[in-house]
Amino acid sequence: MLHMSRSATLMRMRVQHRKLVSTWSPLATAFNAPPSKRINFTRDDVGLFRMPELRTFEGFYLLRDNVENRAQDLIAEAISSQRQRKMVDIFDELSDSLCKVADLAEFIRIAHPKNKYMEAAEQATISICGVVESLNTHKPLYQALRKVVEQGDLKPTTEVDRHVARLFLFDFEQCGIHLPEAERLRVVRLNDYILQLGQKFMNGAAQPSVLPRSYVPESIRNYFPTSAENVIITGLCTNAENVQMREAAYRLYLQPSENQEELLRDLLLCRHELARSCGFETYAHRALNASTMERPELVREFIDTLSDQLRPRAEADFALMTQMKRKESGQPNALVEVWDTPYFTTQLKRQSLEEQANEFLPYFSLGGCMEGLDNLLQALYGVRLENSEMEPGESWHSDIYKLAVMHESEGLLGYIYCDFFERSGKPNQDCHFTIQGGKRLPDGTYQLPIVVVMLGLAQPRWTGPTLLSPARVDNLFHEMGHAMHSMLARTEYQHVTGTRCATDFAEVPSVLMEYFASDPRVLRTFARHFQTHKPISEDMLQRLCASKHLFAASETQLQVFYSALDQEYHGDTAERGGNTTETLKAVQKRYYGLPHVENTAWQLRFSHLVGYGAKYYAYLISKTIASWIWQTYFEGNPFNRQSGERYRAEILAHGGAVPSRQLVANFLQREMTPSVLANSLIHEIDTDESKIKELIVSRS
């Protein structure tokens, strides 16, 4: 009896142990191992993305020829007096036909490892650009669309039809087709010159500073690379422990450059002249047309309102950093400087929250994170991510995963190809590519969206899966937020599907996903040690979530400063053509709590001025709207199905088919004024600050 009793006890212990050590789901198991390399002996290649034309690189030439011929047919249909379809239907098919080739070719151009595919894709991209340029000068096509927008279509239309038609017309007029010929040609030249100036400025912004060795204090000279008698400064050493090194890198890397100053000044002036030629008061007015904020005056009001409320909160942040600097340096009069802020943020994490380097990594395997995403999407939308086997020739590399996005009642919503791992020649960026936009087809079926999510993660090893830092987890959720925007949209037109919406709204779904990735209730569902499957401890979880919000006020103030500077550069200032550093000094004094450093010009390395001219505020406003949505619908329960369904139906489903300002106001049932937006973000900062203080006190 005793022997049997001991055996039974041991058996119960083993059963209990198995219950504690939960197993990964099939999705997690797949992503925790390298994608299986398939050896094909019998089946024919299906072509990239299952496109038969792309069984070889030469298929790009066939796609190009086909779309050029189809474009001519659609142009003829649009300008015909016998037209049988709505004008917007024809334009969207034209846009869809071109985008299917252009978007695919642009992705393959940068992602495919084989030169022949890259070159063929680049040729296709150039050809499609030529087609688009010819369309932009096609007066009869423009006049046919303009007549429909101004006088109405011969066919019955909806408000969505009319909105999308207006967007097509605005795109047309970006190139000045509505202007007299001499003025139109001037707009074309300005656009070309702006493109060239932007490329030169971007290139200059990325160049290292090469200076004589004597420029760098001897005590820190060995920290920097050298070439002959020169020191090479390749970037800001923001997290260096040596304060001299941080200061030297800042001052030397951001030294003024006459060439960069001239390029930036010319870029801003040309943009201003372009806007005036097209009938806008400033370039900012042109850039904000059809945006969420609509006018630069509203952006400035939002920035000013937020700035006023941030100032005392940011001053408190800087005061704490100053205390830390004085304690660390032993200098009672030391002051925090602009080169110190990232360093002391890291130090506060280590000192107050006892964060250790890489301590969180084992709890965030790639497979575990994908399982967490899957569980969240199922809870909110009734959607599952299913790992799907690819056919021979379907992917551009052997380490790609393919996800089928399945809805519990609607079935297949679309496909997400996951290009997650770093490899030679692959761009080092986290981003989302639309390969095929969703749209309603004439027979009533839906053209399924196809997207690629690209990350730069380390390859999984035989010793274990790929492990993600908390920042990488945020990036994964962010990019999957873009992908799900595409998957969950159900628009009539591909021109406005998913992320094809206003720039200052496109980041809202992705930033909102970061809120889920920072919520302890969500993280508890998947943060488990990759070897033992032991859940992350409550202490680690609270410290992790708190660490994401340290010095939030001063960091937000920095984003406000950047946004204000961008608006100032693209407002009336551009016409005066003054020195951009003098403008910077004035804006920094008004909007940022730390002073400008003399003989530096960081704006000359601010490459976002090229890609986000007059729209840098977009991330800040997207963050604010996402915060508002989180507080209203998900903060109480991040798994609330009713809130998820409503969010999909009233926000995600529409893409850009409804003006984003209207979408937000309807969803949140309140007018989107600058003060309401600012108050929402300030409330979040204050709430997070209170939680951090409570946590630090509880640990002291």
UniProtKB/TrEMBL annotation:
UniProt KW Transit peptide keyword: yes
The protein's required cofactors: Zn(2+)
Gene Ontology molecular function terms on file: metal ion binding; metalloendopeptidase activity
Note describing how the cofactor binds: Binds 1 zinc ion.
Keyword NADP included in the entry's annotation: no
Domain Peptidase M3A/M3B catalytic: 238-677
Keywords: Hydrolase, Metal-binding, Metalloprotease, Mitochondrion, Protease, Transit peptide, Zinc
Family statement: Belongs to the peptidase M3 family.
PANTHER family: MITOCHONDRIAL INTERMEDIATE PEPTIDASE, PROTEASE M3 THIMET OLIGOPEPTIDASE-RELATED
Protein name: Mitochondrial intermediate peptidase
Organism: Drosophila madeirensis (Fruit fly)
